[in-house]
């Protein structure tokens, strides 16, 4: 059973760090979704459409943006660079880890539609201690179902053998496709980015909620609580907008299969990293401290193995 979303603006959002008071104690936040960008070095798929976002965003900037927020571990998330720049982006992430030693893991991009050597690339990057997985995105694909092709799904099915997880970003109506892939690759752990991108701005809650619940029935899937503020349009300024979405994610996945991600620097279009963390914690105010710790730290430490627990 799903609940209907609250009317936008029902309650005000908590103020950034003030909204975290008493909710993050005895642990540090594990931020699983941070985009480091360097437009002078890389060509980004979204650059032409969002030229205002083309700015340097490195570990020094993230440290400033999260000052006062108790982040202990950072996952560097690929930012959709050109297909031939994937390994160069990995080197850029290594540079960020030298700037800030909290950058302990990275997720790299994929280019199954344009690179014939993806199998070799996957095996090569899997040897890096910091590479924890690769990400599939339907948004920029010619065929949004490309990951269901036999050769691609077969390689994804080997991720666990290579010590990799599979991050995946799709639109809500594509959730059944991801469920199909997860069933075909039962040994691979899938991390659904941005909670499956519900259409919060358009108020299309019910279809997303039903498909997400069905997806959550699979044992090898995890949901990332990230990116929702950029999906809310004009409703992003009120916490009540997000409460039903956040609560539904935790209800269907359980507190042991949800992780937190800031989606920095994209989050700053609507709020701060601390503001997003406060929104999540406000929605889960009735949850016990042990579940909050699981969502904000422990689950990610387990899933992104090799990071401190």
Automatic annotation (TrEMBL):
<dbReference type="Pfam" id="PF04909">
    <property type="entry name" value="Amidohydro_2"/>
</dbReference>
<comment type="similarity">
    <text>Belongs to the metallo-dependent hydrolases superfamily.</text>
</comment>
<feature type="domain" description="Amidohydrolase-related">
    <location>
        <begin position="31"/>
        <end position="304"/>
    </location>
</feature>
<protein>
    <submittedName>
        <fullName>L-fuconolactonase</fullName>
        <ecNumber>3.1.1.-</ecNumber>
    </submittedName>
</protein>
<keyword id="KW-0378">Hydrolase</keyword>
<dbReference type="InterPro" id="IPR052350">
    <property type="entry name" value="Metallo-dep_Lactonases"/>
</dbReference>
<dbReference type="InterPro" id="IPR032466">
    <property type="entry name" value="Metal_Hydrolase"/>
</dbReference>
<dbReference type="InterPro" id="IPR006680">
    <property type="entry name" value="Amidohydro-rel"/>
</dbReference>
<dbReference type="GO" id="GO:0016787">
    <property type="term" value="F:hydrolase activity"/>
</dbReference>
């Amino acid at each position: 059973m799903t609940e209907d979303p609250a009317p936008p603006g029902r309650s005000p959002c908590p103020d950034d760090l003030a909204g975290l008071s008493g909710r993050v104690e005895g642990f540090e936040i594990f931020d699983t979704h941070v985009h480091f960008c360097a437009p002078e070095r890389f060509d980004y798929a979204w650059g032409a459409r969002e030229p205002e976002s083309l700015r340097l965003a490195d570990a020094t900037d993230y440290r400033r943006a999260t000052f006062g927020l108790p982040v202990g571990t950072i996952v560097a998330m690929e930012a959709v660079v050109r297909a031939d720049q994937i390994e160069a982006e990995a080197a850029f992430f290594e540079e960020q880890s030298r700037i800030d030693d909290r950058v302990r893991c990275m997720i790299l991009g994929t280019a199954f539609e344009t690179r014939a050597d993806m199998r070799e690339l996957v095996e090569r990057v899997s040897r890096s201690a910091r590479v924890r997985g690769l990400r599939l995105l339907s948004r920029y694909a010619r065929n949004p179902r490309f990951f269901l092709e036999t050769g691609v799904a077969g390689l994804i099915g080997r991720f666990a053998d290579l010590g990799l997880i599979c991050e995946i970003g799709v639109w809500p109506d594509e959730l059944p496709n991801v469920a199909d892939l997860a069933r075909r690759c039962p040994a691979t752990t899938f991390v659904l980015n941005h909670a499956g991108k519900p259409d919060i701005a358009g108020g299309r809650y019910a279809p997303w909620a039903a498909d997400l619940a069905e997806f959550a029935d699979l044992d090898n899937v995890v949901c990332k609580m990230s990116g929702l503020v950029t999906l809310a349009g004009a409703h992003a300024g009120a916490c009540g907008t997000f409460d039903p979405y956040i609560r539904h994610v935790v209800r269907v996945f359980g507190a042991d299969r949800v992780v937190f991600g800031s989606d920095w620097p994209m989050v700053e279009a609507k709020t701060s990293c601390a503001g997003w963390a406060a929104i999540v914690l406000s929605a889960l105010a009735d949850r016990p401290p042990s579940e909050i710790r699981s969502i904000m730290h422990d689950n990610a430490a387990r899933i992104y193995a090799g990071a401190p627990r």
